[in-house]
Design brief:
Blueprint (H helix, E strand, L loop, with lengths): L2 H7 L8 H8 L7 H13 L3 H22 L4 E5 L9 H8 L4 E6 L2 H10 L7 E6 L5 H6 L1 H6 L7 E5 L11 H10 L6 E7 L6 H11 L11 H5 L6 E2 L5 E2 L20 E7 L1
Parallel strand pairs: 1-2, 1-4, 2-3, 4-5
Antiparallel strand pairs: 5-8, 6-8, 7-8
Length: 271
């Protein structure tokens, strides 16, 4: 049995996983009843959530486009990538620069099996996937596929899109981000999106807090100031930390969703 098959054998369909739940919100089919039940419970508290997930995906597309087209970035380390869907990081980057190189990192075996089967690359570039948890920074940085695919003497875009709100303060997400950034060459970038309750009314917050007590894993929304803490010592690209729906979205259909309909911050910064 191949590696992808062994990964599939480790899938626990009785426990929801953020990648599969996100796939469900995006209208995908790579999810199980536990993921759908969990997704429905959260969406019942915040009905705009499926649309917010699509806006977050649009932010990823625009961020990668901006870095590849305007800043010449050719390398991306995408941690917490989730299940393959339209406009994956390597597809966006390689449409602009065929020699772009992308490493995907996720800890769901279903993601692993799908990624190995579906995430191809241009002949000029490279795409690979490793099975690892964001919190295991040393494992990620030492992985031979990571070291061999990316040139660590050149700038890399670190993609942490919709993943840090699953890392509680007890695991020190700020230290995780600092350690990852410290390993990158000068002139590298951080692309980050993060759930927030900032624009929500008290009733919606109470509903989300109630459902969060039963979520597995629970999510950890953070305030603007807390999200800003991830960008310490970095220089934010315009327009700074804003709703993912508004980040460089001038070419998107107008009017844009209100922040209260998205409840996700997004930003890009360079070292």
């Amino acid at each position: 049995m191949g590696e992808a098959g062994r990964a599939s054998d480790r899938i626990d369909t009785s426990v929801p996983h953020p990648a599969r739940r996100y796939n469900y919100w995006l209208g995908g089919k790579d999810n199980f009843q536990a993921d759908r039940d969990s997704g429905d419970a959260i969406a019942a508290a915040f009905p705009q959530l499926p649309g917010a997930a699509r806006e977050n995906r649009g932010f990823l597309r625009r961020a990668v486009t901006t870095l590849a087209a305007e800043y010449g970035v050719r390398q991306f380390l995408d941690i917490g990538t989730g299940l393959p869907t339209a406009d994956n990081t390597h597809e966006v980057a390689q449409r602009i620069a065929r020699d772009s190189r992308v490493v995907y990192v996720d800890n769901d075996p279903l993601v692993l099996s799908h990624a190995r089967a579906l995430l191809g690359s241009t002949p000029e570039g490279a795409t690979t996937y490793i099975d690892a948890d964001l919190r295991d920074v040393e494992k990620i940085l030492a992985d031979p596929a990571v070291r061999g695919t990316l040139d660590w003497s050149e700038p890399i875009a670190l993609m942490l899109v919709a993943i840090l709100h699953f890392v509680p303060d007890t695991d020190d997400p700020y230290a995780i981000v600092r350690r990852l950034l410290a390993a990158l060459a000068p002139g590298s970038y951080l692309v980050l999106s993060h759930a927030t309750f900032d624009p929500l009314d008290d009733t919606t917050v109470a509903r989300l807090n109630a459902v969060n007590t039963d979520s597995n894993p629970p999510f950890c929304p953070r305030t603007y100031a807390e999200v800003n803490g991830f960008f310490e010592s970095l220089t934010l690209l315009e327009p700074g930390i804003v709703s993912v729906a508004d980040w460089r979205a001038g070419a998107e259909p107008q009017p844009r969703p209100a922040p209260a309909d998205v409840a996700w911050y997004g930003a890009v910064a360079h070292t």
